[in-house]
Design a protein that fits this description.
The complex is a heterotrimer of chains A (395), B (520) and C (145).
Chain A lengths: L2 E7 L2 H6 L5 H11 L5 E9 L2 E7 L2 H6 L12 H7 L5 E5 L1 H12 L8 E6 L7 H10 L8 E7 L2 E7 L5 E7 H6 L6 H4 L11 E4 L10 E5 L2 H12 L3 E5 L2 H25 L7 H12 L7 H5 L10 H4 L11 H9 L9 H5 L6 H16 L26
Parallel strand pairs in A: 2-4, 4-5, 5-9
Antiparallel strand pairs in A: 1-10, 1-11, 2-3, 6-7, 7-8, 9-10
Helix pairs in contact in A: 2-9, 4-5
Chain B lengths: L5 E5 L8 E9 L2 E7 L13 H4 L1 H5 L7 E2 L2 E2 L2 H13 L6 E4 L7 H13 L5 E2 L3 H6 L5 H5 L4 H6 L2 E5 L3 H4 L1 H12 L3 E6 L10 E4 L19 E5 L6 H13 L3 E5 L5 H7 L5 H5 L4 H10 L4 E5 L3 H4 L4 H7 L4 E6 L11 E4 L7 E5 L5 E5 L4 H9 L5 H12 L39 E5 L14 E4 L1 H7 L7 E5 L2 E9 L6 E4 L12 E8 L3
Chain C lengths: L12 E6 L3 H10 L8 E6 L7 H9 L4 E6 L10 H19 L6 E5 L5 H18 L11
Parallel strand pairs in C: 1-2, 1-3, 3-4
Helix pairs in contact in C: 1-4
The chains are: A alpha/beta (395), B alpha/beta (520), C alpha/beta (145).
C-alpha cells in the first residue's frame, strides 16, 4: 500500500514558515477547515528551547506552530489520552509519539480511528538546557540570542539574531558535539526507529532532491491516504510522485542513522561489561536513590494505569527492600512494551539512568519475543497473552 | 478555539523554586489541575519531587470565601471592613505574619506598606529572631543562598544534619553531580543516610553535638549545606555560623519557604535598627498570649498547618480581638477568623520571586488581584508601580531565570563560641530513652501529612516486640501519636519522622520522646 | 536471620503450589513419608495462574533464596488453560531475574501432579542443594544486631 510522494504547501506563508515546504502544517490546517478533524494537537514555540503542547481547533494557531523544534523533547501520547481521547484529532508525531499512541490504543485508552498521525522522520531531539550550554560553550553565542535551529546533513545549525536584527548562522557536526557529551538526548542517540512507520503518514526531508523545499511523504494507512486526499482536494497541498532515486536515498539515510544509533547504544551501555554481581550492584545502586515521586510512571507513554496501579499499590514505603516494589514492577511491566523514549529519565528528580535500565531489561525480552512495541495495534502486549510467544530466533 | 491552556508556574514547596507547567481545566464546579514538566526550567530541568508531582492536590483544596464574622460578603466589603477595623486598633497592638511560600516580591512590598499604613512594625516572615541574634556581617548567610552550579563545582561538601533526598529533594541531584565531578561528601548527622550519598559519615549523638566543635579540620575548605527553619534553636544556627567563621568554609542554608530570599531582601528584615527589633512568628504568638497584641493579619499562611498540634494555637488565637486572613484556600484558622479575604491561588498570580540560588523567576499567572487587595488598603499603587520598585530594589534591568541576579558577597565575621544545651540522654536502667528527629520536607510546612509511619532501629523493633503491620505510639507528656513503623539502619535511640506530628520539637527539630507498641 | 556460628546455613525457599495438583503432590509426599527438606515454605494458591509475577518479586525482596512456582501439567489445568499464562509469565520472570543479576537458580517452574509426591520431594531436594551451592540471595537484607 505504501506510496511515496513529494509534497508541499501551496500557501506561500505556510511554505515559508514550515520546515520542508510546510506540508504537515498545511495538511493539519486543511483537515481542520474541512471538519475532517475536531482539533489539532500541536507544539507552540515559545523559544528555540521551549515548546508547549496546544490542543486547538483554530487553523491560525496551527499555522503559528509551523516549523521544527528540536529543543522541546515532549512526548504527546499522554496529552492525547488525557485531553483528546474522545475527539477526532490530527497531530504531528515523532516515531516515539506514534509508538506511544499505538500502545495506548492496544490498552484501549484511545480509539485509533479518531487519531490522524502525521508522522515525522526523526533524527533525535535535544534537551533544552544542554542546548543552551552548547550554544554558549561551543557556538560561543548568547543562548538567548538563538532564534532558529536546524539539524541537517549531520550538523546542528544555530541561527542567532545579532544587534540590529542581522542573522548569523553557525554549525557544528553532531558527532563532534556528541563525543563531548552534548548534542541529542541519550534516548535519541540510541533510537533505531527513525521513520514513524506506525503513523498514518511519514514525512521528512530525507529523499528530497537538494535545494527543493518539499516534503518526502510516505503514505502508510488508509487514514493517511484520506487526510492527504483532503489536503490536496481542498487546494492546500500539491504533490508529485517521488523519484526512485529519492526513495533509495531515504532508505540509505535511515540505514546510516540506524547504524550510528546501534553503535551509540553499545557505547553507552556501561552495564554490558559488568559481571552478574556487578550488574546487580549497579541496579541496586542506581535505584536506591529513587524518592518515589511517581513522575516516571506519570509521563510514560506506554503505561495506561491509573493512580491505583499495581506498581503504586504494592509499594509500601514501610518496606526496607533493596529495590522497591515500585521499581521492580515498573521495570517488569515494561519488559515487553518499553519504546525507549527516555521520557522517564528526563523527569527523574534524582537522575536515575532509567533509559539504560529500561532498555537493558526490555530489549532482551523483546528480542526473545520477536516483538516490537508500538508498531502494530493488532499485536497484543505479550505479557497479556495466554500462549507463550517465543520467536524462532530465541530457540 | 484553544482547548488546552498550559501555564508556566513555580512549585511553592520550598526555597528551591522548581519550574513547572500547570494545566487547569474546569469540570463543573470543581477545579482540576494537572502538573506537567517544564524541561526548560533553569532551576530543575522540569524535574519535580513528590510534592511537586502531587501539587494538584495542593491546589484542589477548598477555596476560601470573602467573609465578615462568618457571613459571606463581596470582596470589596471584606476589604473595607478590614481597613476600618485595623484602623481602630493601636499600632503596637497589631501584627502581620506571612510565611513566604506563595507570596511574590510584589506582594511583599505591598504587605509591608499595608502594615506601615497602620503604623505597625510587627511584620514577620518567620525568621526575624535569627537576624537579631547573629552578627550583622553574618546576616548575608541567612539572607542569600548559593547557586546550585556552585554546589556541583564544590570539591568537599558537608551535609550538616541534612538528608537532601528528604529535606530538599531537588538538591540531591546536584550533590550527586558534584560527586561525579570528584567531590568528597561528608555527612554530619544523627544517622547514616540510607541512600549512602556520603563518602564518610560523622555520627553524633544529641549530647555529642558539642563535640563537633573539636572537629574543625573536618570543615576546612568545604561547602557546608544545612537548613534554617523557624523552629530551629538559635544555638544550632550559631554553631553553624561559628564553624563557618572559624574555618575556610562556605555555608549554604536552604529554607522551607519559596520566597524567603525575596522576603529578606524586600521585607526590610535587617535594614535599620527598627527593623531588627521586629518580633518573629513565635514572639508574636507570645505577644498575643500575653495580651500585648490584639489583632493579627495573616497573609497566605496556614499557621495551624505549620505548627505541631493546633490546640494551643487556637487557644492563643482566641485571645485576639481581630483576626484577618487573606488566603486562597480555607485553613483551620480561617474558620475562626473575623474577616477572610479570598485571594487568587498562587499559580494564577502575576509576579516575581527569588529562589534560594538568587534567581529572579517569574510566575506565569495574570492576576494582580492580591497586590490590589493590599494596595487598596495601603498606598494604593498599581501592580506596575510595585513591580518597578521590586526591579529597582533588586537592581534588575531585565528578568531572566537564567541569571543569578542576587549574588552574595562572602564576608568574614567574628562569632563567639556557642554553647549547645541539649539535655543529656540518660541511660537509666529499665527505661529506654528515645529521641525523635523530624526530617522536615515540603509536605511538612503545608499541613499535609505525607507519610503515616516513623523510622526506628532494628534494636528498637526487637525491644518493643514489634511485628510487621504493628503500630507504635509516640508519647511526649500529654501528646500521643499512633504511627506505623519502618526499620532503618539507625542508632538504637533514634526515631525519624518525615510526618509532622503533634509532638513538639523542643530543641530545633529534635526532641525526647517515649515510644511503645500500640495496643489494638 | 543469618546463620549462627558453626551451624550450616539453611536456605529459605518459597514455593507457590496450586490447589489441585502441586499442593496435593506436596501432601502426597508427606503421606508417603518422603523426606522433604525443611527449607521450603509453601503458599497454596487456587491455580498457578493466580501467581502474579509481583508475588514472586516480592518473595525475592522479602529474602527468599529461591522461589519455586509449581502447577498442574500443561493440559491438566483445572481452569482450562490458566497454567499457560503461568508459563508465559515465567519466561518474563526468568529474563528479569537474570538481567537483575540474580542467579537463574533462584527461580523455578515445575509441573507437579497430585500423584507425583516423590517428584515433589526430589524437586525440593534438588533446589535446596543448588541454592546451598550458590549461597544466600543478595536481595536479603541483614540487620545489625
Amino acid at each position: 500500500m505504501s506510496k511515496y510522494y513529494l509534497a508541499w504547501a501551496k500557501d506561500e506563508e505556510i511554505r515559508k514558515k514550515g520546515a520542508n515546504g510546510g506540508f504537515v502544517t498545511a495538511t493539519l490546517v486543511s483537515a481542520l477547515e474541512n471538519n475532517f478533524i475536531d482539533a489539532a494537537l500541536v507544539v507552540a514555540k515559545k523559544s528555540v528551547y521551549e515548546g508547549i503542547p496546544v490542543l486547538t481547533s483554530d487553523p491560525e494557531v496551527v499555522k503559528e506552530c509551523a516549523g521544527s523544534l528540536h529543543g522541546a523533547p515532549i512526548n504527546l501520547t499522554k496529552y492525547v489520552v488525557d485531553y483528546a481521547a474522545k475527539k477526532r484529532i490530527g497531530l504531528p508525531t515523532k516515531p516515539c509519539d506514534a509508538r506511544g499512541i499505538i500502545e495506548q490504543a492496544k490498552r484501549r485508552q484511545v480509539n485509533l480511528d479518531n487519531i490522524f498521525m502525521i508522522g515525522l522522520n526523526c533524527g533525535g531531539t535535544l534537551h533544552p538546557l544542554r542546548m543552551r550550554e552548547m550554544a554558549a560553550d561551543f557556538y560561543e553565542l548568547d543562548p538567548d540570542s538563538v532564534v532558529k535551529e536546524e539539524i541537517k546533513e549531520g550538523k546542528i545549525f544555530l541561527v542567532s539574531e545579532e544587534e540590529g536584527g542581522e542573522e548569523k548562522e553557525k554549525w557544528i557536526k553532531i558527532d563532534e558535539l556528541e563525543q563531548k557529551g552534548y548534542g541529542r538526548r541519550d534516548a535519541c542517540k540510541s533510537c533505531v526507529t527513525k521513520i514513524p512507520t506506525s503513523a498514518d503518514l511519514a514525512c521528512g526531508n530525507w529523499g528530497v532532491p537538494q535545494g527543493e523545499k518539499k516534503t518526502f511523504v510516505e503514505v502508510l494507512t488508509e487514514k493517511g491516504e484520506a487526510i492527504l486526499k483532503n489536503a490536496i482536494d481542498s487546494g492546500y497541498v500539491d504533490i508529485e510522485e517521488a523519484p526512485g532515486k529519492g526513495i533509495e536515498m531515504r532508505k540509505k539515510i535511515e540505514a546510516g542513522m540506524q547504524k550510528l544509533a546501534t553503535s551509540w547504544k553499545e557505547r553507552m551501555d556501561e552495564v554490558s561489561t559488568l559481571s552478574r554481581s556487578g550488574r546487580f550492584e549497579f541496579y541496586v545502586d542506581a535505584l536506591k536513590n529513587c524518592i518515589h515521586c511517581g513522575a516516571c510512571k506519570e509521563v510514560c507513554p506506554v503505561c495506561a494505569c491509573e493512580a491505583d496501579s499495581k506498581c503504586l499499590d504494592m509499594n509500601d514505603e514501610r518496606d526496607s527492600y533493596a529495590i522497591s516494589m515500585y521499581n521492580m514492577l515498573r521495570i517488569f511491566h515494561l519488559m515487553d512494551s518499553c519504546i525507549h523514549c527516555g521520557q522517564c529519565e528526563d523527569v527523574c528528580p534524582v537522575d536515575i539512568p532509567l533509559t539504560l535500565i529500561q532498555r537493558r531489561f526490555s530489549e532482551r525480552m523483546q528480542r526473545h519475543l520477536g516483538y516490537i512495541p508500538g508498531m502494530d495495534v493488532k499485536e497484543k502486549p505479550p505479557l497479556y497473552e495466554t500462549e507463550l510467544r517465543w520467536s524462532a530466533e530465541a530457540e | 478555539m484553544v482547548e488546552m491552556k498550559i501555564k508556566s508556574s513555580i512549585c511553592p514547596g520550598c526555597s528551591v523554586g522548581c519550574g513547572l507547567y500547570l494545566l487547569e481545566s474546569e469540570e463543573g464546579e470543581e477545579r482540576e489541575i494537572k502538573i506537567l514538566h517544564r524541561k526548560n526550567s533553569a532551576v530543575n530541568e522540569g524535574k519535580l519531587c513528590k510534592f511537586g508531582t502531587d501539587l494538584h492536590t495542593y491546589y484542589e483544596r477548598e477555596v476560601l470565601n470573602n467573609s465578615v464574622e462568618g457571613e459571606e460578603v463581596k470582596q470589596e466589603e471584606a476589604i473595607r471592613e478590614a481597613k476600618e477595623r485595623l484602623g481602630s486598633i493601636k499600632p503596637d497592638e497589631l501584627a502581620f505574619i506571612a510565611l513566604p511560600s506563595t507570596i511574590t516580591n510584589e506582594e511583599i512590598l505591598s504587605f509591608v506598606s499595608l502594615a506601615s499604613e497602620f503604623g505597625c512594625e510587627n511584620v514577620s516572615f518567620g525568621f526575624e529572631r535569627f537576624f537579631r541574634e547573629i552578627p550583622e556581617e553574618a546576616s548575608y548567610i541567612i539572607e542569600k543562598g548559593l547557586s546550585f552550579s556552585e554546589v556541583e563545582k564544590a570539591t568537599k561538601i558537608i551535609l550538616f544534619f541534612l538528608d537532601p533526598f528528604v529535606h530538599y529533594p531537588l538538591l540531591a541531584r546536584r550533590i550527586l553531580k558534584a560527586k561525579k565531578n570528584g567531590a568528597r561528601v561528608i555527612e554530619v548527622s544523627f544517622a547514616k543516610n540510607e541512600r549512602g550519598i556520603a563518602d564518610e559519615t560523622v555520627l553524633v549523638e544529641p549530647k555529642g553535638i558539642e563535640r563537633i566543635k573539636e572537629k574543625k579540620e573536618l570543615f576546612e575548605d568545604s561547602l557546608i549545606i544545612g537548613e534554617l527553619t523557624p523552629y530551629m534553636n538559635s544555638q544550632f544556627l550559631e554553631l553553624m555560623l561559628w564553624i563557618n567563621a572559624s574555618t575556610t568554609s562556605r555555608l549554604f542554608l536552604l529554607k522551607p519557604f519559596l520566597n524567603s530570599t525575596g522576603a529578606f531582601l524586600l521585607g526590610g528584615n535587617r535594614n535599620g535598627k527598627e527593623a531588627r527589633k521586629r518580633k518573629d512568628l513565635f514572639e508574636i504568638l507570645g505577644g498575643i498570649e500575653g495580651g500585648e497584641i490584639k489583632a493579627l493579619y495573616l497573609l497566605e499562611t496556614d499557621l495551624a498547618g505549620a505548627m505541631h498540634g493546633s490546640e494551643e494555637l487556637f487557644e492563643t488565637i482566641s485571645k485576639l480581638d481581630l483576626l484577618i486572613e487573606q488566603n486562597a484556600f480555607r485553613t483551620p484558622l480561617s474558620d475562626v477568623a473575623n474577616i477572610t479575604i479570598c485571594s487568587e491561588p498562587f499559580f494564577m498570580k502575576k509576579g516575581t520571586l527569588v529562589n534560594i540560588e538568587g534567581r529572579v523567576i517569574e510566575n506565569g499567572g495574570e492576576s494582580e488581584n492580591n497586590v490590589q487587595i493590599m494596595e487598596s488598603m495601603g498606598k494604593g499603587r498599581s501592580y506596575e508601580e510595585v513591580h518597578e520598585e521590586v526591579k529597582r530594589r533588586l537592581g534588575l534591568a531585565e528578568i531572566s531565570e537564567f541569571e543569578i541576579a542576587v549574588k552574595r558577597e562572602e564576608k568574614s565575621f567574628e562569632m563567639a563560641e556557642p554553647k549547645i544545651e541539649i539535655e543529656e540522654r540518660k541511660e537509666e536502667e529499665g527505661k529506654e530513652e528515645y529521641f525523635l528527629w523530624y526530617k522536615t520536607n515540603p509536605f511538612f510546612w503545608n499541613g499535609i501529612r505525607a507519610k503515616n509511619f516513623v523510622e526506628i532501629s532494628p534494636a528498637a523493633m526487637r525491644k518493643l516486640g514489634l511485628f510487621r503491620g504493628d503500630e507504635v505510639e509516640i508519647v511526649q507528656g500529654e501528646r500521643k501519636e499512633r504511627m506505623g513503623f519502618k526499620i532503618s539502619e539507625l542508632p538504637d535511640y533514634l526515631i525519624l519522622s518525615e510526618a509532622k506530628m503533634s509532638i513538639k520539637p523542643l530543641q530545633g527539630s529534635l526532641t525526647r520522646v517515649e515510644i511503645r507498641r500500640a495496643g489494638e | 536471620m543469618g546463620k549462627s556460628e558453626g551451624e550450616e546455613w539453611e536456605p529459605k525457599i518459597l514455593a507457590f503450589c496450586c490447589n489441585w495438583c502441586s499442593y496435593a503432590g506436596a501432601d502426597a509426599a508427606g503421606l508417603e513419608r518422603r523426606q522433604v527438606p525443611p527449607t521450603i515454605r509453601v503458599i497454596r494458591v487456587m491455580c498457578s495462574g493466580r501467581i502474579d509475577p509481583a508475588f514472586v518479586l516480592m518473595g525475592l525482596l522479602e529474602g527468599a533464596d529461591a522461589v519455586l512456582v509449581t502447577g498442574c501439567h500443561i493440559g491438566d489445568c483445572h481452569y482450562v488453560n490458566a497454567n499457560n499464562k503461568t508459563r508465559n509469565r515465567y519466561e518474563f520472570l526468568k529474563e528479569f531475574v537474570d538481567e537483575l543479576g540474580l542467579e537463574p537458580e533462584r527461580l523455578w517452574l515445575r509441573w507437579v501432579s497430585a500423584s507425583e509426591g516423590p517428584l515433589f520431594a526430589e524437586m525440593v531436594r534438588e533446589v535446596t542443594e543448588k541454592i546451598k551451592k550458590i549461597g544466600p540471595s543478595p536481595l536479603r537484607r541483614e540487620w545489625k544486631k
